[in-house]
Automatic annotation (TrEMBL):
Database matches in InterPro entries: E_motif, PPR_At4g14850-like_plant, PPR_rpt, TPR-like_helical_dom_sf
GO BP annotations listed: RNA modification
Protein name: Pentatricopeptide repeat-containing protein, mitochondrial
Repeat recorded as keyword: yes
Domain of life assignment: Eukaryota
PPR repeat ranges per the UniProt record: 38-72, 139-169, 170-204, 271-305, 408-442
Length: 494
């Protein structure tokens, strides 16, 4: 009897491995030919379908198990619930949850972790919390899924509470926190978590650094970012393509084009993301011609451009005023590969035409759009009107913006600036009064400087800095010195 069971298990496993390379009818045939169809072979076939993204067939096979009187186990549920996630069907997931309860498997850690992932991605973290509390001895995967759910809903304190009570925090848990805080703009907390991670002896991996460099880029902390770069070299040895791409983007956002090019040149492997990062870096830093040259090199080495490449190219043309060249690239994409074009590319063209003062072309371009123009299109047109003091068209664009977003403060400010540049002070007063009546306030712009790895943030007329007395004293000295200089006579007029 033991020999027969072992033989059936062997044949089941062998055939299960065999159908991984077969088409659906043959896979079904192999399953039907098994002398003893059991939960192992059925689960393996379900897994086969999920790997091929044939999720409806995976679910159909799960239902067939009950007709064949095969009871699913915890591994069956962990596989089939992936299909409900991919199909974005929370109701189907809840049905699987109900079946697991009937079979008494809902408290199993594998089933619980799969259910947690399902509810986090398709439903709410509160339902995920219910599953977590129902799970017997949750593991690191369970805890990490739950804290990801809290981060997804911006519930940072609760995510931190879950993180602090994980019995054995691993690199995946740390990465989830760093990535979650970085994506939500909590950049300082993200880098603090990384520092704590190192202090607690957890070794970062290739997935740690992209989120870290993103946070550093958002804060524009070049000094700290270079120290994180050194950490990456220390712990990883060789920077892979994913970390390398994030490094290129980091240096670009910090304005260090030289470091950007150096990192790109040192990459052992380059993909379309690598080229896009370098093209956009040159576009952002005003080197439009260099960006165009890189685009040509990219095509020469056989890397196919994508929609991000085209957007970087259009931005490069915009920054150096190459309107006709941008039109050429846009038309080439429209006629040769229309799938590349997204709404962002159309908006970029409107911005380019408006900034260059080609308002008739910009208006016609908007009229000929294959979709209804959104907020960004009218704000791009309004921005161009502000630059060229086109108050008539600016008022029209502002009306469109405010119809879509009545509380958009920036539109009032741009329209006011356009009137101001044209010397229409009464119109400026009208716009400002309307803002006051609606209770709209401008958000003050800020600037910051990094000194010895510490960020100092300032707003207009700032009085909150600890060294404000010394700062204003030194600023006064500089202004006095500048006023005495013959090379800065314009300051007297100001």
């Amino acid at each position: 009897m033991r020999y027969m069971n072992s033989l059936c298990l062997f044949r089941s496993t062998r055939l299960s491995c065999k159908w991984l390379t077969q088409t659906d009818p043959i896979a079904y045939q192999l399953f039907d030919e098994l002398p003893q169809r059991d939960v192992v072979s059925a689960t393996s076939l379900i897994s086969h379908f999920t790997r091929l993204n044939q999720h409806n067939k995976a679910i159909s096979m799960f239902s067939k198990m009950f007709a064949l009187n095969i009871k699913p186990n915890e591994f069956t549920f962990s596989v089939v619930m992936q299909s409900s996630v991919f199909l974005d069907d929370s109701n189907l997931g809840k049905q699987f949850h109900g079946v697991s309860i009937k079979l008494g498997l809902n408290s199993n850690v594998y089933v619980g972790s799969s259910l947690l992932n399902l509810y986090v991605k398709l439903s709410s973290v509160d339902e995920a919390r219910f599953v977590f509390e129902d799970t017997h001895e949750p593991n690191a995967v369970s805890y990490t899924s739950l804290l990801c759910g809290y981060l997804k809903e911006d519930r940072f304190d609760e995510a931190m509470e879950v993180f602090r009570v994980i019995p054995e925090r691993n690199v995946v848990s740390w990465n989830a926190m760093i990535s979650g805080f970085s994506k939500k703009g909590r950049n300082e907390e993200a880098v603090d978590l990384f520092v704590e991670m190192l202090r607690r002896g957890c070794v970062p991996d290739q997935s740690t650094f992209p989120s870290l460099f993103s946070a550093a880029a958002n804060m524009a902390v070049l000094g700290r970012g270079k120290s994180y770069h050194a950490c990456a070299l220390k712990y990883l040895g060789e920077v892979g393509v994913f970390v390398g791409n994030s490094l290129v983007s980091f240096y670009a956002k910090c304005g260090s084009l030289e470091d950007c090019v150096r990192v790109f040149g040192g990459l052992c492997e380059r993909n379309v993301v690598s080229w896009n990062a370098l093209i956009c870096a040159h576009a952002q830093n005003g080197s439009g011609e260099a960006a165009i040259e890189l685009f040509q090199r990219m095509k020469e080495v056989g890397v196919k451009p994508n929609s991000v490449t085209l957007l970087g190219l259009l931005l490069a043309c915009s920054h150096v005023g190459l309107v006709d060249e941008a039109y050429t690239y846009f038309e080439q994409a429209r006629t040769q590969d229309a799938e590349l074009l997204k709404s962002e590319h159309y908006a970029c063209m409107v911005d380019l035409l408006s900034r260059s003062g080609r308002f008739q072309q910009a208006e016609k371009f908007i009229q000929d759009l294959p979709f209804d123009p959104g907020l960004g299109f009218w704000k791009a047109l309004l921005g161009g009107c502000q630059i060229h003091s086109n108050t008539k068209l600016g008022e029209y664009a502002a009306e469109k913006v405010l119809a879509l977003e009545p509380g958009d403060v920036s539109s009032y400010v741009m329209l006011s600036n356009a009137h101001s540049a044209a010397g229409r002070w009464q119109s400026v007063s009208i716009v400002r009064n309307e803002m006051r009546e609606k209770g709209l306030k401008t958000v003050p712009g800020c600037s910051w400087v990094e000194i010895k790895c510490k960020i100092h943030v300032f707003v207009t007329g700032d009085k909150r800095h600890a060294h404000k007395s010394e700062i204003y004293e030194l600023l006064g000295y500089f202004l006095e010195h500048a006023m005495k200089s013959q090379e800065t006579d314009f300051l007297r007029e100001f």
